[in-house]
Amino acid sequence: MLELRELVKHYRVGEGEPIRAVDGVSLSIETGELLALYGPSGSGKSTLLTLVAALLRPDSGTVLLDGREISALSEEEAARYRLHDLGFISQTAELLPGARVIENAALKLWLSDRRGAEARVRPLLERLGLGGRLTHRSEQLSIGERQRLMIALALSMKPRLVLADEPTGSLDTQRSNEVLALLREVCEEQQVAVLLVTHDPQAAAFADRVLELRDGRLGPYEPGPAHPATLSAGAAS
Amino acid sequence: MSTLKGASELLEMRNVSKRYRRGSQILRVLEGASLQVGRGEVVCVLGTRGQGKTTLLRIAAGMESADEGTVSFDGQDLAALGDRELSRVLGRKIAWAGKSGPGIRTRMLDYVAMPLLVGHGEQERVGLRKRWRAKRDVDERAMAALERVGAAGCAGQQWESMSDWERALVELAQALAGEPALLLVDDVTDALGIRETDELTTLLSSVARESKMGVLMSVSDAQATLLSDRIMTLAGGRLTQGPQAPAGNVIEFPDLGLSRRDVS
To answer: N or C end of chain A, less CB within 10 A?
Structure first.
């Protein structure tokens, strides 16, 4: 479904050696699969997501979504791709102040001029446990509820792929586990692939597959024997 | 906006207190804070980080409730408003400019248009004679807001590709798009340089005067108080009247360890 082939992105800062943010990354994700990219900060995770989102062009290599070359899209096509084919979830829920839960969830549909936006997102919000909060303003939600609303917004256009950048970075362990379990379940039901980047082994434990990114290069994820991810590997099942 | 109530302040906060519980500790964020913002007036709340400026603004916007004290907007007590009415006031009359950026990766014209898409209720929206017409109107109003702040060139851009200065202008455009009566600006000058800060405050000051809009802005940089009508300082939960803003080349805020110099 999503395929990255030999993706390279280097930055040059001043006269120094180029920073090899993404250095020959190849991977593929299937429909409905949750793939976690684990890595410390500065490992190139966010750059990789930016390349997949076509917000940045690679120096070389390709991004393919259902065989379509994303890295070659025009600005206008890339904007349409981001709105229609992708959903985004980040660490902080960037919601529209003053707007109600259902309005925040319907924003992408309204921007795309779709009819019946509120009716479309209502079942999704109910599935995410926000059915009793539809007319509350986003400020009235807890942090965990705000992240669930972000999931609803990300899925509102029925995207092919969700890009999640440390989606539970601001939550405590229990809420983080709840949100990740829900993200995993709902995306599986809706057959949406998820590319999750995280430096939290606990979050990585919810993935179908985990790969490790270090200095821009991808490798196998090898948690040590006392690794928290190993201890909680059953959390997602 | 009704002008019949011209005698009353647009925003009036009286003896507002707010405490948060953190474990067994009680954090006293605001203690008996009072301030007024009139129509066409720019009021700055100056304080270093973590002093509760954002909390103060959130209470002014009705986004959070005060533990004690009252907040009235256009003569109405916010705490006495029903949920529906409060949503209407928040969506239509009070606007918020912060630094958060969009939750949707989209062009900035869409981002600025977002507040115009909410707050009507679906019935009203689809009941418009032709929906495409409604969306076109929204885009036109969003474009006008971008032009007003001098950021028309950002309409087709993505948040990630813009500078801090462009982001501040786009945030402002989004807040202005719905032509609010009260604009709350939460530390948008924090990431800006001195010239940009002066340019932004000049812009805010002229928008406030032209539109008779009240502006309450929180700032951690004393430079951003340059064109405000009044400066309040916030430290240790206490809000106090700062030195008068106009004239003078340097204003000192000894309690905060901050100072400001005017740029000629």
So the answer is: C
Distance between CA A196 and CA A221 in Å, rounded?
A: 14
Percent of chain B with pLDDT over 90: 51
Q: What's the pLDDT band for A87 if we cut at 50, 70, 90?
A: very high
User: Which one of A116, A137, A153 has the shortest CB-CB distance to B103?
Assistant: A153
Name the fold adopted by B8-93+182-264. Answer: Rossmann fold (3.40.50)
Give yes or no for residue B2 having a pLDDT over 50: no
User: Which residues have C-beta within 8 Å of that of residue A202, sequence separation ≥ 6?
Assistant: A173, A176, A177, A228, A229, A232, A235
A92, A100, A101, A161, best to mutate vs chain B, most B CBs in 10 Å: A100
Tokens representing residue B244 in the block = 């008068």
- B139 and chain A in contact, CB less than 8 A: no
* Exposed/middle/buried for residue B190 (C-beta within 10 Å: 0-12, 13-18, 19+): middle
Distance (Å) of CA B72 to CA B37, B93, B163: 11, 13, 36
Q: What is the domain class of A1-85+159-219 according to CATH?
A: alpha beta
Q: Look at the pTM and tell me if it is higher than 0.90.
A: no
What is the Rg, in whole angstroms, of the alpha carbon atoms belonging to chain B?
Answer: 19
CA distance B245 to B110: 37
Residue of A50, A110, A114 to mutate when probing chain B, most B C-beta within 10 A: A110
SS3 content of chain B, % helix, strand, coil (to 5): 40, 30, 35
Taking CB atoms and an 8 Å limit, are B63 and A139 in contact across chains? yes
For residues B225 and B146, give the distance between their C-alpha atoms in angstroms, rounded to a whole number. 24
Q: Does B105 touch chain A (CB under 8 A)?
A: yes
> Is B102 near chain A, with CB under 8 Å?
yes
A5, β-bridge pairs: A62
Q: How far apart are CA A135 and CA B223, in angstroms?
A: 40
Number of other CB atoms surrounding residue B174 within 10 Å: 26
Taking a contact as any Cβ pair under 8 Å apart, which residues of chain B between 17 and 36 contact chain A?
Answer: none
**Residue B37 confidence (pLDDT):** 96
B-chain CB neighbours of A84 within 8 Å are: none
Q: Determine the pLDDT at residue B70.
A: 96
| B87 vs A83, A100, A118: nearest CB | A100
Q: Structural domain boundaries of chain A?
A: 1-85+159-219, 95-153
d(CA A208, CA A34): 5
Over residues A157-171, the pLDDT tens digits come to 999 999 999 888 878
Q: What is the residue extent of each domain of chain B?
A: 8-93+182-264, 101-179
Could you tell me the strand order of the sheet in which A86-89 lies? A86-89, A161-165, A193-198, A34-38, A209-214, A217-220
